[in-house]
Amino acid sequence: MHFAYPPRKSSNPPPFRPRSSRLAAARRSRLRTVALIGVGFLFLLYLLRGKSTGTAKGTTRHIPSGSPPVVIVTVVNYDNGMEYADVVKENRISYAKLHGYETFFPHIGDYDLRGSPMSWTKVVALRHALAKFPDASYIWFLDQEALIMNPEISVHKDILAYEKLDKMMLRRQPVTLPESVIKTYPQLKPNQIDLVLTQDKEGVDGKSMILRNSDWSEFFLDTWYDPLFRSYNFELAETHTLEHIIQWHATILSKLALIPQRTMNSYSDSTLGEAYAEGDFVVRFPGCTGTGEKSCQQEASRYNERWRKAFASA
User: Fold this and answer.
1) In angstroms, rounded to a whole number, what is the distance separating the alpha carbons of residues 102 and 68?
2) Model pTM?
3) Bias category Low complexity: which stretches (predicted)?
């Protein structure tokens, strides 16, 4: 079989003729123009990125002064009754005054959730709190279905102080219960932690959670509230989304500390989690309703006299 060979190049190529100096100069001018436009575009992107992230050359993210040390955030829902909402506010304000903290009480319906369940309000409220209190060291979200019971316990001294948190951190703890291949990192130190959570019998619970005021926390809240995750329509909405992103995003797991439930999230119902005992910091009423025997107001009435007496003597 024979194959056609390509024609050979001529062994007598035409003589080299340099381009005119005028054409070369014009080309160099065009290249300089394109290069200048490209550099200008990249510089504009750099400035815009720096403005949006606060990391442009010569600027840094605002460093919180620690005043106040902690802001307590509770989303108020008047469906549980105006009287109950007032009791919750009184409870938070009384505790905050004792420790030099601030309180923030956004209402259900304050934010446009674009069709997402109202329980997502907590995530937007936390993002709002970071902007509203730029000098706070920590943001403590405590759900409305809870009361602070022990005024002598300080969030930033008795939970978040390096030595205290170091002893409480549950290392190699399964993220989902009863067992999970995803566990908290054993090598983390308290100064690396930006998110503090507890677990109940079902798993991670975000009804009492602490965030450090940091750029990471802004990233975390933006990730948690991402439209993609909200579109998954998890059964427990933001709770299951939280569990999901902790398990599958190492950038979040690497900043997480799980601590014993009764540290800041004891339950009035022992069938759901660790039961409240005298001296515990917080009591929660998971699943309490707006009306009836299991109403939040009815549950709280069992504890109101105790916390008011403790706060009066603190």
Assistant:
1) 6
2) 0.81
3) 1-11
Q: Which fold has domain 70-312?
A: Spore Coat Polysaccharide Biosynthesis Protein SpsA; Chain A (3.90.550)
Measured CA distances, 65 to 4, 7, 210, 227, 288 (Å): 81, 79, 18, 33, 38
pLDDT at 172: 95
Of 19-23, 249-253, 279-283, which gets the smallest average pLDDT?
19-23
120 vs 126: CA distance, rounded Å = 10
E-strand stretches of 85-221: 102-104, 138-142, 146-148, 195-199, 204-212
What is the rounded average pLDDT for all residues in the chain?
Answer: 86
Give CA separation, 177 vs 30, 232, 258, 273, in Å.
65, 21, 13, 12
Here the tokens at position 213 are: 């005021």
Q: What are phi and psi of 249, to 5 degrees?
A: -130, 105
Q: 64-87: string of b/e by CB count within 10 Å (b at 16+)?
A: beeebbbbbbbbbbeebbeebbeb
As beta bridge partners, residue 248 has: none
Sheet holding 266-267, edge to edge: 146-148, 282-284, 266-267
pLDDT of res. 176: 87
Count CA atoms closer than 13 A to 89's CA, side-chain side: 14
CA gap 245, 164 in Å, rounded: 27
In the chain, where are the structural domains located? 70-312
- Secondary structure (3-state) at 212: strand
To the nearest whole percent, how much of the chain has pLDDT over 70?
81
- pLDDT for 29 equals 56
3 state DSSP class of 199: strand
Burial 204-236 (b: 16+ CB within 10 A, else e): bbbbbbbbbbbebbbebbeebbeeebbeeeeee
**Ramachandran angles phi, psi of 136, nearest 5°:** -70, 145
Which tokens sit at 94?
């009384």
Pairing of strands 146-148, 256-258: unpaired
